[in-house]
Amino acid sequence: MTQRAFKYRFYPTPEQETLLRRTIGCTRLVYNRALAARTEAWYERQERVGYVESSALLTTWKKEVGLEFLNEVSCVPLQQGLRHLQKAFGNFWAGRAKYPTFKKKRNGGSAEFTKSGFKFRDGQVFLAKSNDALNIRWSRFLPNGSTPSTITVKFSPAGRWTVSLLVDVEIEPLPESPNKIGIDLGITSLVALSTGEKVANPKGFNTKRRKLRKAQKALSRKVKGSNNRYKARLKVAKVHAEISDARQDFLHKLTTRLVRENQTIAVEDLAVKNMIKNRKLSQAISDASWGELVRQLEYKCDWYGRNFVKIDRWFPSSKRCGHCGHVVEKLPLNVREWDCPKCGTNHDRDVNAANNILAAGLAVSVCGANVRPDKQ
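User: That's the sequence. What structure does it adopt?
Assistant: Structure tokens below.
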């Protein structure tokens, strides 16, 4: 069994929207107060405050004057917010993330409900403290007989309400395919395949750049705190949502096609966080969304029984001749084709890199070979 989230738009009634906004606001308040308490305890008294201590603090806050409204919403999202904070600190201590930051109202928010905080009856979702079912636009149906274990309600900066239902599903592996590909990620061509195919980069940000610039200029002229500024900020958020939606749609279609057609997929393990520190390329790399593309390939391969291989990021895929194995010393980014000085073979930079990635990926998957460049 595999856990899979199904995300839908929904349109709350005025009463539901009021309740959900208060729930999200309370969840944000509890999260920020718990983060402040944990930070203060460590820096002032060198004490570590965990989830248990934070939960006890929540009980105390509910009894304080001025915080009685915390009792008017479901307690489940508040507790889940504390669990998310605990997970954020766990990622920080493990070196996987930065120190947790405070949540801001302008970024929207979310509230997570476990089984004790909702009812799923006759294909409808009833949240705690609400008598009416959510008006969900069922763009696709849940698997037969499945029941959500967790429901997450999210309010985006663009004013959209979405609900994610986490269910356990049985995903059937795809029929085995004889095809194998290596993938070289790029900017002009988003991916170059070892088959010679190149998929152009849609550059979603550049497509909406003028529209976004116009909306941001209008926002900058509005008085802070005014209703007109709120409307202008909403327009900016909607343009960002359009860019994100187009990017996600393209990546899902591309990765699904690659997983369906190929049994083995090899990619480079790129350090995207380090690469975007290059000020000249940071915007283009972020717009290409390499990290999200690789993430989708990885979990879809796991779902459908495909082989997914990441090769070492230091492997010289572009500089190595795919015909004789010779590695050139330098290969600037503006050189898109080159001739091997040893065997004279002409190479397309990206396709040659994809072929080398595939060869290295097969070597790693078969015998665990080292694909780091040989030391002189």
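The chain has ten helices and 13 strands.
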